[in-house]
Specification:
Strand order of the largest sheet: 1-2
Structural class: alpha+beta
Number of domains: 1
Largest sheet: 2 strands, antiparallel
Helix content: 10-25%
Number of strands: 2
Radius of gyration: 18 Å
Order of helices and strands: HEEH
Mean pLDDT: 81
Length: 73
């Protein structure tokens, strides 16, 4: 198991083994997903980064019914 410590300012260093596994470089963004008692850390793909592409995670217009509704406009 890999450990790191949380500072008084709620900061932590991502351990080298984790950075290597996720191919993290300085300036990369990460996301956190809470799943019960676990937190999943992921490297953010710039194409899916809501700061770089604000519509990347939008599900509006994603269903077949939504697409048909747009076709009728």
């Amino acid at each position: 198991m890999i450990y790191s410590r949380v500072t008084a300012k709620a900061q932590t260093t991502i351990p080298r083994a984790v950075r290597a596994a996720l191919a993290l470089e300085p300036g990369d963004d990460v996301s956190y997903e809470i799943d019960g008692g676990k937190v999943i850390l992921r490297r953010v793909d710039k194409a899916m980064d809501p700061f770089e592409n604000p519509f990347a995670l939008s599900t509006e217009g994603a269903s077949e019914a939504d697409c048909k509704a747009y076709d009728n406009l």
